[in-house]
Amino acid sequence: MPRSGQEARERLARAALELFLERGFDAVTAAEIAARAGVTERTYFRHFPDKREVLFDGERRLTEWVTEALASVPADVPLWPAMRRTVDLIVAPLEANRPDSDRLAAIVKATPALRERAASKEARLVSIITGLLVGRGASTDEAALVARTAWGVLAQAIEAWRAAPGTSLQVHVDRGFTLLTGLVGGAQGDPPR
Predict the structure, then answer these.
(1) Does the residue 190 lie in any domain?
(2) In percent, how much of the chain has pLDDT > 90?
(3) Which residues in the chain come in under a pLDDT of 50?
């Protein structure tokens, strides 16, 4: 039996990933996940409200990484460079978490109901980032645009990284931000009507 709540959560998450990869999301029950993790079903539901949430437990860690990274950027750094630094700071933990992240991505890709949940979780994280940027003095519109854009660059970089095993996520992040700068760098004001 796990000795701490955190250890139980981690064992449940690992067991769920293993079982979902072996048999598919729909074919696995919460009771089976609990049994594989060596805990009771009651313990499972003490930690997760349903079997989908066990897959998205990493969202809590990701939110912590983003929050801590943005907090470490000095307050006088302008909005866009602050967000870029924040993304750069979370690259290392994302890379360290790649094995679990890749397994989760495969499960989500194979399960339509999980794709919806993943999109909802991503939207929630962008909303949290927006709030953090507003807390740094940005307007809501500026903060939302920067949060969505930076997260879009990161999501694109992660997709490219998954498609190119053996590469660094940072290479793809740098490329994404460079591409974005090139696309908007020459834009002047509103497009012609």
Answers:
(1) no
(2) 68
(3) 1, 192
d(CA 37, CA 34): 5
Phi, psi of 135 (to 5 degrees): -65, -20
Residues 85, 40, single domain; the answer is no
90 shares its domain with 19: no
Q: Whole-structure pTM over 0.85, yes or no?
A: no
Regarding whether 151 and 68 lie in a shared domain, the answer is: yes
Q: How many domains does the chain have?
A: 2
Domain that holds residue 101: 58-185
